[in-house]
Design a protein that fits this description.
about 70 residues; mainly alpha; 2 domains; 3 helices
Length: about 70
C-alpha cells in the first residue's frame, strides 16, 4: 500500500471510530430517539436528525468549544 492509501485508511478508520463513540455516548446518556443512522451512514458528514432550532442553538458552542462544524439544517 502506498502512503496515500495508508493515510486514507487511517482517516476512514478514525471516522468510523468517532461515529461509534458518538452513538454509544448518545445511548448512554439516554438521548431520545434512535441514533443508529449515525453508525449506518458513511463518509465525512452525518445527518444528525436535529431540528433547525436545535442545531442553531448548539452551533456556536460546538464550533467554538469543540471545533465541530455543523450546518444549520441538522
Amino acid at each position: 500500500m502506498d502512503m496515500l492509501q495508508v493515510e486514507l485508511k487511517g482517516m476512514a478508520d478514525r471516522i468510523i471510530t468517532m461515529r461509534e463513540k458518538l452513538h454509544s455516548a448518545l445511548k448512554e446518556v439516554g438521548a431520545p430517539g434512535t441514533w443508529d443512522h449515525i453508525i449506518s451512514q458513511i463518509g465525512m458528514f452525518s445527518y444528525t436528525g436535529l431540528t433547525k432550532v436545535s442545531t442553531h442553538a448548539k452551533h456556536a458552542c460546538l464550533a467554538s468549544m469543540h471545533a465541530v462544524g455543523s450546518v444549520k439544517l441538522g
